[in-house]
Amino acid sequence: KNLSKFLHHLHHINESHDISETNSKIAQSISVETIETEAFNNLLNVSEISIQNTRSLVHIHKRAFNHLPKLRYLSISNTGIGVFPDLTSIFSLESDFILYICDNLNLHSVPTNAFIGMTSEFTTMNLFNNGFQEIESHAFNGTKIDKLVLKNNKELRVIHEDAFKGAFGPTMLDVSSTALETLPSRGLESVLMLVARSAFTLKRLPPLNGLKSLREAQLTYPSHCCALLSWDSNSPSDVASDDSLTLDGPLASDIVGFTSAEDMFGSMDFYYPELDLCQRRPALQCSPEADAFNPCEDIAGFGFLRVAIWFINILAIVGNLTVLLVLFTSRCKLTVPKFVMCHLAFADLCIGVYLLMIATVDLMTRGHYSQHAIEWQTGVGCGIAGFLSVFGGELSVYTLSTITVERWHTITHALRLERRLGLRHASSIMVVGWVVCLGMALLPLMGVSSYNKVSMCLPMDIETPLSQAYVILLLLFNVGAFLVICGCYVCIYTAVRNPEFPGRAADTKIAKRMAVLIFTDFLCMAPISFFAISAAFKVPLITVTNSKILLVLFYPINSCANPFLYAIFTRAFRKDAYILLSSMGCCESKANLYRMKTYCSENVNRSKSSSGSNKNSKAPRAVVWMSSFPHVTPRPQMQRV
């Protein structure tokens, strides 16, 4: 009833041609549920219509806005309507038409041909903070769009590929704070300004050729700016050679400041080479700029690293898979060294798989990584790669420490067999190691630091005190493990040189092998730990670009060297490998030779054990056990009876 009185008054004004009142407003004071057909019909003098803060309004009938030739402002805001209003019969003749459809949370889509017939002039569309989930095909058909603002439509996930088909423009597009995952690849050729702030799901840009007029971009991720700036610098910059850069519409007029030559002189074909410099289009402005963690470069950064990373990951994978295959298929009794070696090989295999994932993504995105950076770094793949890196690296360090401590313990207590480490104890130690390393690798996935900070998917996020403490703890764990390894090898070397030790092998061969083991550990841990600790305290001494050299060439050294130093180069491993190959019909003579040596050794030890004293019977067994390690290879005279 109130609405009828209001509209009757409006029609009376229109019929009396009283142009002093050209605005109509339906506000919260008017309780209305529907607006009927032709409610706003043939109002020749009305220039503004505002329907605001009427949550009781649930439906606007078709042709409710009919023949409003002077309408230049229409606002339908904060209502309860659930169907997009019919605007196709307004037929406004006013230029710079402004449309506000905002704060309507029950609107879920913009339908096909939603604005055709609204106006034939350029329009500014403010369609923000609605419940839109989709903008359908040909939604903007038949329109000339100056500015299109879709910001704060938090449920908007899809803009159809042909949503802008049949439309001219927009010249400015704002999709900030939406749930869009990508933009349409067609229909954005006229966009001069793109705004996509806080659009965290917009991880992939459309084909950049579809944004060929773009001059300013305000985005969420620095890597997108890298992609745009790289494309812009490599694309033709001559305006005369690119007719798609012809500017039109209100926004374009504001920027250029004068009408086109065609409007002034007609379609004339003339060209002055001396004016080329005056026709260069302005440089693309884009924010945010690339930061220290995400420079505008490929994952590998350097060409030689791209080659090295493949060589290293193949070596690590093949070496550790070989160790696991031989140890798992061995018919010999499972000993503590073999048990721990399986864990070490698996940990180093994780590092190899991590490098393989990084190398593969680098190869697939070579030359255009910036376009895929956010999709990779925030995706599942980067999380898995980072998890494998931290878990494999920490488990490898933990296992190396366990192996070294176990060797030191066994050698220094060679005459006390009851104190030797058994499989039950070794299993308990490794369970603890797995739990600790899994916890360290899972924390970045749970918000403590992050794997998506850098393209190499390592936890380099130290923005919060908790993240900083996590990274420092991780580094101290590695440094502490290295010190333990060094200390144990020093004790082992001291022990085997002790003349009172019953099975001493005081030769330079032992020292050389220990030096190799310590040197590889030092080469792997020292450079990375030094620069990483300084960066963790927010005093970086090296850029992310240069740190990739350390991460590719030094970080995986242990993963490549361990299978050879701790397994493949040992006699016990070679024996298992030849026996495995003999079962396939290869190297049978070598396998028989190793079987003969093992049989003779067991018989000699058994006879000595039965004839000698209890004291002397323990020494050979301890020495035989020691001989399975590459760095402690006793001479024959060490076996005393």
Descriptive overview:
It is a single chain. Residues 12-21, 238-265, 503-507 and 612-641 have low confidence and may be disordered. With 641 residues, this protein is an alpha/beta fold. Helix 8 (380-412) packs antiparallel against helix 9, helix 8 runs parallel beside helix 10 and helix 15 packs antiparallel against helix 16. It has 2 domains: 2-287, Leucine-rich repeat, LRR (right-handed beta-alpha superhelix) (Alpha-Beta Horseshoe); 303-570, Rhodopsin 7-helix transmembrane proteins (Rhopdopsin 7-helix transmembrane proteins, Up-down Bundle). It is built from 16 helices and 17 strands. The radius of gyration is 37 Å and the shape is elongated. Helix content is 45%, strand content 9%.
Features:
9% strand; Rhopdopsin 7-helix transmembrane proteins; 3-stranded parallel beta sheet; 10-stranded parallel beta sheet; elongated; 641 residues; 2 domains; alpha/beta; disordered C terminus; Leucine-rich repeat, LRR (right-handed beta-alpha superhelix)
Describe, in short, the structure shown.
The chain is α/β, with parallel strands linked by helices.
Mean pLDDT: 80
Unreliable spans: 12-21, 238-265, 503-507, 612-641
Helix content: 40-55%
Name given to the CATH homologous superfamily of the largest domain: Ribonuclease Inhibitor
Can you tell me the number of structural domains? Answer: 2
What is the CATH third-level topology name of the largest domain? Leucine-rich repeat, LRR (right-handed beta-alpha superhelix)
Rg from alpha-carbon coordinates: 37 Å
Count of runs of 4 or more consecutive helical residues: 16
Strand arrangement, major sheet: 1-4-7-8-10-12-14-15-16-17
| Strand content range | 5-15%
Q: What structural class do helix, strand and pairing data support? A: alpha/beta
Quick one: CATH class of the largest domain? Alpha Beta
Taking the sheet with the most strands, its summary is: 10 strands, parallel
Distance between the termini: 117 Å
